[in-house]
## 1
Amino acid sequence: MPRPVAALLLAALAGATTPATAATLFITNTKSDSVSVIDTKTLDVVGSIPLGRGKPNRIVFQPDGRVAWVVYDKSHDLGLIDADARKLVRRVKIGGNPYNLAFTPDGSHLLVLDWSSDTSNDEVIFYDLKAEKIDGRVEVSTWPAHTAFSRDGKLVYVSGETAGDVTVIDVATRAVVARIVHGGGDAMGLALTADGKTLYAAAGENKAILKIDTATRKIRGEIPLPGVVHEATLTLDGRYLYTTLRKINKIVVVRTADDRIVATIAQRGYPDLVTMEPTGRYALVTNRWADLVSVIDLASHAQVRAIPVGKAPHGMALRPR
């Protein structure tokens, strides 16, 4: 790596002492090579950040909210954005074919979900931000996609997109402690309940959301859906599960009290990821082939607005406040 990451972050954040006055959502536009910045209070685009070529895709914030990290699908590297300056600071290389990122809850490590390449296996890479080095690699099944941490931060759940499974990793020992196989390809989304007892897992081509008991690590229920399911995101109050069915352009809303579908919301173009707006009023959904973010009112489960962004929006990350 050409420059230490710690030094890079210090340089990026020098002089950035003014806190953000409103919550912002960063959206990566894979065909515009940019990030659109949405003010979650006004639901307007308030900025755009050029990212350079390489097909920027997934994006995550460090827990302190000052730096956002971006995965470039085509160039297979990562970008670091100074969130206050709204500027790409540097591109770095960690892993051979990174697909997604996550931070440990304590902010000490970056997890790189790395797909098999000439230089790496399908694995989760643990990158120590303070020591500026990789200090762990955990091999998983094919195409690690999404993550969710246990409430105490001791475990991380990793979905296997093509394998149709969930791998459970002990964060401290970097060891696989369980693998829950469901066999549904195109499996990605994970959502953990507030009490940490139930993990919802999108089983993709099985056309279902699975309910996994985190104590026994067994599947204890299944919610059938009318299509291949990609994302699964809980509302902030935990009452509803928002799921995206990309191939049929629908969002399906499940009531968690009885696992019943209570709404189906038509979308314009390949609904992908879902983020809950911080006050609990809205769900925000990227529509990749319609170049927009849908705004869904959570009280009525109806779309109330579409926010035009760049071309082919996919990744989204809410900036921590």
## 2
Amino acid sequence: MARRFVNELSEQETLDEVFRAADKQLRANRQGGKYILMKLADRTGTISAMLWNADEKILASFDRGDFIRCQGRTQLYNGNLQAILTEVSRVDPDQVDLADFERFDARAADDLESRLREILGGLKNVHLRRLGEAFLADEPFMTRLKMAPAAVTNHHAYPGGLLQHTLDLIDLAAAIAPKYPNVDFELVTFGCFLHDLGKIEELSAHSEATYTDRGQLVGHIVIGVQMLGEKLAAVAADSGESVPDQLRWQLEHLILSHHGQLDFGSPKVPMTLEAITLHHLDNLDAKLAAATSVIEHDVSAEGNWTHYNPTMGRKFWKGQ
């Protein structure tokens, strides 16, 4: 019998399938009983699941990242599909097809890396080009960049998503460049590359994206400025010529301001034409990717609208 992937599940469906346990937590309900809250994953996505009347023994019977057989039923809760489980059991990896769970597309990542190398290597500003070459020559960094997600949820939340998001922004910048001659689009392009690099350290890409301890304590914006500082020092040591202070400050500002508002996590608001451009391109790509994901994964069969999405505060038109 063919397996049922996460993106094929619908409400009120009997479930008997193997998933990867992306996360697990033992919680207590209002009556004092215990249950396990889980995130189940395969190559098409994730679904939240709960196992009622659980205890520490059941929790210890499998680890995060293990394959587990899940029996139960699906249901809708606040517009989201979830699974209510009656039984879980660990499955040996030899008994599953790993291709059903691998979300990383190595060929696509290689293609994106080639495009990134061509773009950064073609920059006319010698300081930006040298800086780009320093990042590209760092093999451990590039390996992690190709695997990194752009988020835990919302947009590009899959292995390789960060590199896809980066190239999408660079393409958007190239598309609007002729309209805004006063904007330095080489600087914007490099900002597209830099702005989320700290997520390589902020997020763990193993099996399913989660926040690292450093990510929780420091955050990707500060980490990104630190990573930039390390590469600026390396370029100065290798070439004998430091990146000019004005350019360094602008690059730091692009990272620090790309969320656009202080209450959205940016230490600074955008104060250069390039920072304003980067913020709005980033916001456009992230919001459209998030909304598209909501529409594509909505399980409502009623009418042309998705269920209400609490994260984005609205329903979305699905079309006819």
